[in-house]
Amino acid sequence: MSVAEQVSPLELADYQRAVRLLLAHPLVTEVHPNRAALPLVRRWAVQLRTDLHELLGYRLVTTANTARLLRVQDDLDLTRPAVTRTDRPFDRRRYAYLVLTLAALGRSGTQIALSELAEAVAADATRIDGLGLDTERKPDRDAFVDAVTWLTERGALALADGSAADWASSPDRAEALYDIDREVVFAIYRPSRVLQHLGSVTGLLETDRGLAQGVHRIREAAARRARRLVLERPVVYYADVSESLRGQLRHPGLAEDLERLTGQAVERRAEGLALIDASGRLSDIRFPSGGTPSQAALLLSTRIAAQVEKRKLPTMPAPTAAERTEASAARIDAGLPLRGVVAELTVEEPGTETETETETETAESALYPFLTDAWLKGAMKELMSTYGSAFALVWRGDPDRLLREALRLLSALGLVARVEGGVLALPLLARYRATTAEIKPAPAKRPAKETS
In the chain, which segments carry CATH 1.10.10? Predict the structure, then answer.
């Protein structure tokens, strides 16, 4: 197929902007991510629907007020959580309140008071072991309001009167009234499986369910998965995928298709490839970027790269895709409620081996330099001594927390892999080995003018 077949050369950049917007924001409404987004997606909806399905296997569903991209989930990605207005990731309680709030809104009319919505969510929460929602407790109210605010930002709710923050501070004296957009409510929650029938979160992943397929269909499915990996991951290492996927990743057509679709360049190296987001509008994590954790992560990456270059370090293999999926699934499944699950429907059929399991059987052997936690702590201590005056005050007194956050970011970007006792330096880290930094002096204060 020809990507962007019905798009003229003069309009290609505009079409690619719509693609990047939709990939970065799978839910587009009249207010989210901005008011110009939905008209842009609507303009190119037909071509978007064709290209995203043929290239990636994604499905675009549009209504009068929404555009919803239904992705295919190949991996468990823990790097893109829902966040509050202050960029704090949702915890399990907030996720639970979010889902229960959606359920309550689905049963409601066109308007609802915040206290009424809280009562409906509280009634459902009491039926879940270990959850509950006590509106007399400030932490519970804050978590509930975070879920409501997340929905408000996406247009599912629109504040008609009052203040949610005031209600959270004093529910006896304050109230908030919301208009409900039911189209947005139903567009947000579109699971690919019936969740009550799943015994594990891995049931949401795309797998070959053992159906007979022709060689052409199998190759086509592998090509789509390879394109998805390059789009969804910061970097794809050949050592981390199956032999069939390595062939698809090395095919020149993959880079041509993705570059024409997104307007971004695919960079190839001996170890793998990555889509370089020069626009800054496609990636959910920008790096380098502002803020102390990102700056510390960048500085730490240069120290790690330098250490790898000048010393012969012990090496070991990185966790495989299947091992990472298993570990992530165990963490998520530990929070699943067991009550109400229909056990006989959660038993997998024979021959339903997941693709990540197949990948480990044919993965290339690759060893990576290992750096200990003790060395990392020492490197962070040196960074704090050299650059600490440029870090935000909240981080200066807690170098261990800053180290954890920096390593979390580097791991999410595919620059390092966390293992017991330290990290492994992955090949992409070499991009930052020549980075230099300096502390900018604070601007001098102007002397106060004398008054007569």
Answer: 92-188, 292-320+363-432
What integer is the mean pLDDT of 428-452?
64
CB 234 within 8 A of CB 276: no
Q: For residue 9, how many other CB atoms are within 10 A of its CB? A: 7
Residue 363 gets the label, from left (phi > 0), alpha (psi -120 to 50) or beta, of beta
Q: Report how far residue 83's alpha carbon sits from residue 282's, in angstroms, rounded to the nearest whole number.
A: 18
Q: How far apart are CA 15 and CA 8, in angstroms?
A: 9
pTM metric for this prediction? 0.85
What DSSP state is assigned to residue 128? S
**Per-position b or e across 35-69, b if 16+ CB within 10 A of its CB:** eebbebbeebeebbbbbbeebbbbebebeebbbbb
Provide mean pLDDT across the span 388-415.
92
Taking the alpha carbons at both ends of the chain, their separation in whole angstroms is 79
**Range 92-188: architecture per CATH:** Orthogonal Bundle (1.10)
Is the backbone peptide bond immediately before 33 cis, with ω within 30 degrees of 0? Answer: yes
Angle, CA of 239, 244 and 246, to the nearest 5°: 40
Please state which architecture CATH assigns to domain 292-320+363-432: Orthogonal Bundle (1.10)
> Which distant-in-sequence residues (6+ apart) come within 8 Å of 41 by Cβ?
18, 21, 22, 28, 48, 62, 67
